[in-house]
């Protein structure tokens, strides 16, 4: 999973298929703590005015932090554990727990969902890395090789991780992912048409929209003017949860409400009922440099050239974490399992609630069993054609 030849890093290699194994208590705890970290990270990132779409995989962030811990020594390593609230764990427990969690939630065979995850650790040319590390001989070369690697490892879905490599004198962790939900009940391929998605009141994009009516867990929070919808994936091993304001508005108001407690409160009020869903059939590609955001959340040493001790990577003390690129492509498509059409002749499907996704929304992909978050994010601007722009 990690491109590197460090003996210790191989601890993170995928364990034997974790099909229906019960998660250990350590992996369960790490799932929980990475979900908490996810909300802090989301809020920290949402503060940046230039950020539109957000796409973070909390479990992959946790696993990358695990690699930093593994490469770190002394307080550089212990601080990583603090960020993961895993101070009490021994190194081996942390790595085994993260490895177990990742292999469980990303097992494509049992989950019937496409999730390609590739990770890589890059180092500066000054550091004597083992062969498998790609060294940053020059910046242009580095940018090209990173982007080529990401495109290749995602089957072309993620063509670009970065345009630049700031601070090429440090180590870089890079995550390149492609996620495509496979719905528990598919959308009909033919029920797709051209509609518009309002980015703002004056800016509309032309997108493809897919439609389906079915029974879903749904909640209409009238007080907060928000819809919450749970769409199961695969064989219900995970769900994509949509949180959308009643009508177009900047997401700030909703984001102020967004805590784990509020999410649990919403999920606790869900009602299984008929919902007519219109969902953009779109893809987005997002790349974030998490280095600064993780520093804001307490990872101050690994990112500080003067303080970092990542000598377990290079054997020398002059290495620090200069970038943590976290890049994902997400594709919302009609594909999924066939559904039982008999439902359409039943009374249950009458008077569906409308869930019409034509304006920005927040979403999470949550593992049903471990409660780990595979993703948290927002779509503010899908790919599409600009059809109206009134200034
Ligand atoms: C999901 O299951 C269906 C039906 O078994 C299969 O055709 C499809 O290839 C699977 N998709 C993934 C991503 O595993
Ligand atoms: C959507 O619009 C585009 C361009 O106008 C057109 O080429 C395409 O066939 C339309 N698709 C559907 C499903 O109507
Ligand atoms: C979680 O899994 C159980 C057992 O398969 C299923 O009954 C339940 O509906 C799932 N929950 C969600 C939210 O998909
Ligand atoms: C990394 O740390 C482990 C445990 O402290 C140690 O056994 C190993 O030799 C270290 N590796 C390097 C390259 O310093």
TrEMBL record:
The keyword Signal applies. Belongs to the serpin family. This is Serpin H1. Residues 1-18 form the signal peptide. Residues 39-382 form the Serpin domain. It comes from the Eukaryota. The keyword Endoplasmic reticulum applies. GO terms for molecular function: serine-type endopeptidase inhibitor activity. InterPro entries: Serpin_CS, Serpin_dom, Serpin_fam, Serpin_sf, Serpin_sf_1, Serpin_sf_2. SMART domains: SERPIN (SM00093). Binds specifically to collagen. Could be involved as a chaperone in the biosynthetic pathway of collagen. GO terms for biological process: collagen fibril organization. Keywords: Chaperone, Endoplasmic reticulum, Glycoprotein, Signal. SUPFAM superfamilies: Serpins (SSF56574). GO terms for cellular component: endoplasmic reticulum; extracellular space. It comes from Muraenolepis orangiensis.
